[in-house]
Design a protein that fits this description.
By secondary structure, the chain is α/β, with parallel strands linked by helices. The protein has 2 domains: about 5-180, Spore Coat Polysaccharide Biosynthesis Protein SpsA, Chain A (Alpha-Beta Complex); about 180-220. About 50% of the residues lie in helices and about 15% in strands. It has 10 helices and 7 strands. It has helices spanning about 5-15, 35-45, 55-65, 85-90, 110-125, 140-145, 155-165, 180-185, 185-200, 205-215, and strands at about 25-30, 45-50, 70, 75-80, 95-105, 135, 165-175. The strands form 2 sheets. Strands 3-6-5-7-4 form a 5-stranded mixed sheet. It has a two-stranded parallel ribbon with strand order 1-2. The radius of gyration is 17 Å and the shape is globular. The N and C termini lie close together (about 10 Å).
């Protein structure tokens, strides 16, 4: 989480309301916020503060977690109520890890559905990104490449590593993702910027340099 407490509270509410949710919740705060720490104490979550770097934050959560399966969620995620059960079933049938489908929260306009469909196709033939609720058996994570210590595209090497190591695939359910950044930046502009960033990363431009550009144009 990074300066997104309302979304974090909504996520924790969602996890708390699940009948058979996660056994442990670890929150890695990139803002060292006393308010965030207080919320975590009230919710009996493990709280850790770290410099704002998404890859380092996610890896720190993996190291701190004690469960057999790790489920990585961004603060503004809206996972399905039975998400933890779906993960358990995947692991029971031999998956080492996987990811959820992508869908936007709110009213389902045609452009939301079209973009969600393209993102889900990309995830199947390429790399699912972190906002799709990646999960992995804990012992497998520590044998894999892990999250890269970078502010962007931190999951790419991890996903490639997991695909080589065993069965890694989609869960038949979707995680809701807030459309607020697309609504703020404009749907076409935001989508094009995201694709250009991905192409630049594949062309060899460092995630650190891309992150500076990303934040300079008001993304995040």
């Amino acid at each position: 989480v990074l300066s997104d407490l309302p979304a974090l509270v909504q996520l924790l509410d969602c996890l708390d309301s699940a009948g058979n949710g996660p056994e442990q919740t670890v929150v890695i705060d990139g803002n060292a916020s006393s308010a965030c720490k207080r919320i975590c104490t009230e919710r009996q979550c493990l709280y850790l503060a770290l410099e704002p770097n998404r890859g380092r934050q996610l890896d720190a959560g993996a190291v701190a977690a004690s469960g057999d399966v790790l489920w990585f969620l961004h603060a503004d995620s809206v996972p399905p109520g039975n998400g933890a059960d779906l993960i358990r079933r995947c692991v029971e049938v031999g998956y080492i890890g996987g990811y959820f489908g992508f869908t936007f929260t709110g009213a389902q306009r045609w452009y939301k559905k079209a973009l969600s469909a393209s993102i889900n196709l990309r995830a199947r033939i390429g790399t699912p990104y972190g906002d799709q609720g990646l999960f992995v058996a804990r012992h497998v994570y520590h044998q894999s490449a892990g999250y890269a210590p970078t502010p962007l595209f931190e999951e790419v090497h991890l996903v490639k590593s997991l695909r080589r190591m065993g069965r890694f695939g989609p869960v038949d359910a979707a995680i809701g993702v807030s459309p607020r950044r697309w609504e703020r930046d404009g749907w076409v502009r935001r989508t094009l910027n995201n694709r250009l960033m991905a192409m630049a990363y594949m062309a060899g431009i460092s995630p650190q340099r891309l992150a500076r550009y990303y934040h300079s144009i008001g993304s995040g």
